[in-house]
Amino acid sequence: MQNKTLKELASLVGGDIAGDENVAISDVAGIDNAGQGDITFIANPKYIAMISSAKASAFIVSPDVKAQAGKNFLYVKNPYLAFAKILALFNPPPLPYNGIHPDA
Q1: Eight-class DSSP state of 92
Q2: Which of 40, 10, 12, 8 is nearest to 27 (CA)?
């Protein structure tokens, strides 16, 4: 999968951006495992404090989360749904095998 910019992902999910809209996103990850190039999401307010120490390149959050200096945010109404759409983009289902199985 080719990298996508945060701007491209915002267009896909209908979100707004705070931060660098041109940051390159190459994968999705949970907040604990996210690193450079990853986008993660926070839907539960108790995890907002983790943003400051997280290494993700961008965060999918609801509009009530305050922007933080040096962090990139994708604001959406439903972070779960946006994360699912972006996850599907970076991890599409395998294509079905077209042909005759060798054992057939």
Answers
A1: P
A2: 40
- Domains of the chain in start order, with CATH, are 4-90 (3.40.1390.10)
Amino acid letter, 14:
G
Q: Could you identify the residue written with the tokens 């949970």?
A: 30
Which residue, 69, 70, 62, 30, is CA-closest to 44? 62
Is residue 35 within 8 A of residue 52, CB to CB? The reply is no
Q: How much is the pTM?
A: 0.87
From the list 78, 80, 49, 86, the residue with the least C-alpha distance to 66 is 49
**pLDDT tens for the 104 residues of the chain, in order:** 689 999 999 999 999 999 999 999 999 999 999 999 999 999 999 999 999 999 999 999 999 999 999 999 999 999 999 999 999 999 887 777 777 767 76
Q: How far is CA 61 from CA 2, 44, 65, 103, in A?
A: 23, 9, 7, 49
